[in-house]
Amino acid sequence: MRKPEILMTPGPTPVPAEVLLAQASPIVYHRGPGFGAVLRDCIEGLQWIMQTRNDILTFTTSGSGAMESAVVNCFSPGDKVLVVSVGNFGERFQTICKTYGLDVTVIDYEWGKTAKAADVAAALTPDTKGVLIQHSETSTGVVNDIEAISKVVKDHPALFIVDTVSGLGASPLKVDEWGIDVAAGGVQKALMMSPGIGFVAVSPKAWDAYKTSTLPKFYFDWGPVKKSHDLPDPESPYTPAVSLFLGLQAAIKLLREEGIENCFERHRTLARAVKAAVQALGLELVGEDQERAVCVTTIRAPEGIDGSAITKLLRAKFGIVFAPGQGQWKGKVFRIGHLGYFERADVLQAVAALEMVLDELGYPVKQGAGVAAAQDVFAQAG
Amino acid sequence: MRKPEILMTPGPTPVPAEVLLAQASPIVYHRGPGFGAVLRDCIEGLQWIMQTRNDILTFTTSGSGAMESAVVNCFSPGDKVLVVSVGNFGERFQTICKTYGLDVTVIDYEWGKTAKAADVAAALTPDTKGVLIQHSETSTGVVNDIEAISKVVKDHPALFIVDTVSGLGASPLKVDEWGIDVAAGGVQKALMMSPGIGFVAVSPKAWDAYKTSTLPKFYFDWGPVKKSHDLPDPESPYTPAVSLFLGLQAAIKLLREEGIENCFERHRTLARAVKAAVQALGLELVGEDQERAVCVTTIRAPEGIDGSAITKLLRAKFGIVFAPGQGQWKGKVFRIGHLGYFERADVLQAVAALEMVLDELGYPVKQGAGVAAAQDVFAQAG
What we know:
The structure is a homodimer. By secondary structure, chain A is α/β, with parallel strands linked by helices. Chain A contains 13 helices and 13 strands. In chain A, the strands form 3 sheets. The first copy, chain A, has a 7-stranded mixed sheet with strand order 2-8-7-6-5-3-4, with helices on both faces. In chain A, α4 (88-99) links the parallel β3 and β4. The longest helix of chain A is centred in the last third of the chain and has 21 residues, at 260-280. The first copy, chain A, starts with 5 loop residues before the first strand and ends with a helix. Chains A and B meet through α1, α3, α4 and α9 of A and α1, α3, α4 and α9 of B.
C-alpha cells in the first residue's frame, strides 16, 4: 500500500476529491446551455478571485500559454517592453518577448530579491509599451509587492502585465484597484485544480493595445475567445478541456464557501508556521520579504548537504514532494510549497517528516523542535 | 432524472467510465518516475495508433493548437504552401498559414467533395514547401484518401502535413508507410478521451525543416517538448494536464484491448448501419466516398425542414446530440457522429429516436424502417 504523494510543490498541488470527481463527470457538449453554465461559473469565479470586472479569457493550456497570450495580443515587433525579473519565470517572460521580436529591457534582480517600485520608475521611458512582472516567483519563493509597483506604472502609458500563475488565490491581487492590464493565471496552484486551464484578465487599455498589435497569433488570439465567451451560452472557439472546466467549477465552489479573505489568511498562517519551523531547526530562509512569501518557502540546504538529497529522501520515505532548487539554485536550496489544498495538519506532518530526513542525512536535529514552532504559530493564530 | 446527453457529434465524444475515473485519480507530480511512466504509455500508444516510429510530441491544447504547431515549426514567412481544403477545417489551415505570413495556394473543393491526388499533383510546384490537408473533414463528413495523395507528395520536397484530429482511431492512418511528415491529432474523438490534449507525429524530414524555420513560437515550439519527452522519465516543458494524461493512458489501454483493426472495423460497421438507416428513411447522404466516411455521416435535411430543427428536437426529447450543419451548410444538413465509444446498440437507439423526431416534424416516416436497415447491416456483419 502506498498513499498518493503529497504535492507540497509550487504546483501542481493536491486536488480535493470533490474536484476530482467533478472532472470524472460525463462529458458535456461544449456548445449549448450545459457547458455554457459551467463556463459562466468559471469566468465569474475567476473575476471574483482576481477582484476584477475585466474580461476573463480562458484557454486550454498551461500557465505559460497564458503568459505567451499576453505578449502576442498586446504588442508588435520592435515594441519596447520592460521585464522585471526576480527569477526563473522572469526569464521566461524575457524569452517569450525576445522570441516575438520585442525590444526588451530587463531589470535583472539577483535571485531572492524582490522587485522595487523605485527601480521600475527609474527604468520606465516614455516609449515603454509594457511592464511585465511576476506576482509570485516560484523559483525563489518571493512575492513581489505588486500594489507598490502598480503605483508607478498606473499613470504611464505602458501596459501593466502580471503573471499571477502561482500567486493567485494565495496572495491578494486586486486587478482593478491596482490597475493591472493583463493578469495571467493558471488553475493548478492555489485554485486547487488539475493543470490544463490558463486564463487572462484583460483591461480596456489592453484591448486598445490588442487592436493595433500585429504579432501573429491564432490559438492564443484573444479576439475569438472573447466573442465565444460573450455568447448567451459561453463557448470557446476551439474544443475546450470540458472535464477540467467541470473541475474548476467545483474548485471555485469550494473557494467561495471558504471566502477569499479566509483563503488568504489560511495561506498566511501556513506559511508562517513553515517558516517558524525550519528556522527553529536552525535552517536559513532565502528570499526577501518572507511575510509576503505565502506560496512557497525557500530554504538554504545545510552546509554539506545537497538540497536535492533532502527532497529525494523525503519523497522516497514519506511520499511528500518538496521541490528542489531550479536553475542557479540547483542543489543549494529546497522549496516547500504550501499553496492550495493544505491545512494545519499537513504542515505538522511535513515538518515532522522533514526533521527525520534531515537527521538521517546527518544534520543535527532536535527532533520535534520544528513541529513545536509550527504548533506555536497555530496556537497563536487561534 | 435526466441521463447524460449522448454525444453523437463529431467531438467531443462520450468517454468510458474507466477513463473518467482515471482522470479523477490523485494528481501525480509532473516531474519524475510517476508521471514519466504515464506519459511514456501515452506516447507509445499514440505511436501504435498512428502506425509510426516518428517522435510524438504532446501539448495541453485543443486539436487546433496541434495544427498551429505544425505550421509554426515547419515554415518561415513567405514559404509557399498548398492547402487542400474540403471544408471548414481546410479553411482553418488556410487561416493559420495566412496568419503566419505564408504564401498560400488553395485547392478549394466544393463542400462534400473529397480531395483528388491528380489535383494535388497538378498544383505542386518545385518551390512548394508543404501540403496541408485533412484526413477526416468533420464539417462535411468526408474522409480523404490520404494514401492516394501521399503517393504524389511522397517524393516531392514538400512536407506532407495531415490533420487527423477527427480521423485518427476511426479511419486507418499509416504515418510511416504513407510518408506523412506531420500528423496532428487530438484525443476527444475516436480515442474516447476528454478534450485537452493535442499531439503531432514528426518525421525526420519535418525535423530538418524545423531547424531552418524562423516563425516565432514558444508554447508550441517542438524543440523543448522533444527534449522533455526524451528524458528517462518523460516530462513536458510546461506543466501538462496531468489528469488528462491519466485518462489518455486508460483510453489507450481500452483501445489496445480491442485491437486497432477491430476498432477500425467497428467504425466501418457502425457507419454502414447509420447510412443504410437514413437511406431507408428516404433521406439523402451528402458527400463523396461514403464507404470511407466512417467518422461522421452528413445527411441532407428533408425539403421544408431545417436541419437544426432536427438536432434541437432530438436533443430536447431524447438527450441525443447530433451536430447541425456548419458554415455554408447551416440548416441544410445534420450530421451524425459515430466515432469513439459507440457500439451497435447506440446506433439502433439513435436511429429509432431519429425516426420519431422526423415524424414529429412532419416528415413521412415508416416507423421502424431505419432501424430495420441498421439491423440488416449488423446481421450481415455477424
